[in-house]
């Protein structure tokens, strides 16, 4: 069964590169550009993993993660990986408190991205 990943990233360049690289790994990728659209998407579809930029318009990644954890469907427990250029502004406790399982720093290392995603796909299911 093909695993589904939701990429929440307002940068079209990062979004497109991430989609391309993960598609080559045989994942089904959906992408949105803000936190509100993440919530909308999760109300109608189920995902195996969310890659979420912390700094997005409308609703940032931290607030969005908290909203996801409050949902009343399967997506409430989906692993969330934060993508941030400002990881130093947050502690692991901040991420955990928001319901985020891990993070990847920007600029993204795509080998690390693939390894991280694979790790969650094996551990999570």
UniProtKB/TrEMBL annotation:
Pfam families: Response_reg. InterPro entries: CheY-like_superfamily, Sig_transdc_resp-reg_receiver. The modification 4-aspartylphosphate is found at residue 53. It comes from the Bacteria. Residues 4-121 form the Response regulatory domain. Transmembrane segments: none annotated. The keyword Phosphoprotein applies. Keywords: Phosphoprotein, Two-component regulatory system. PROSITE patterns: RESPONSE_REGULATORY. SMART domains: REC (SM00448). This is Response regulator. It comes from Marinoscillum luteum.
């Amino acid at each position: 069964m093909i695993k589904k990943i939701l990429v929440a990233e307002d940068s079209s360049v990062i979004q497109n590169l991430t989609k391309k690289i993960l598609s080559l790994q045989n994942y089904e990728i959906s992408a949105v550009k803000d936190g509100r659209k993440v919530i909308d998407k999760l109300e109608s579809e189920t995902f195996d993993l969310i890659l979420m930029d912390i700094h997005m318009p409308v609703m940032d990644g931290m607030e969005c993660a908290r909203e996801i954890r409050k949902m009343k469907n399967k997506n409430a427990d989906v692993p969330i990986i934060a993508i941030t250029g400002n990881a130093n502004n947050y502690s692991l406790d901040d991420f955990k408190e928001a319901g985020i399982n891990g993070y990847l720093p920007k600029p993204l290392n795509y080998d690390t991205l693939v390894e991280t995603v694979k790790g969650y796909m094996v551990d999570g299911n």
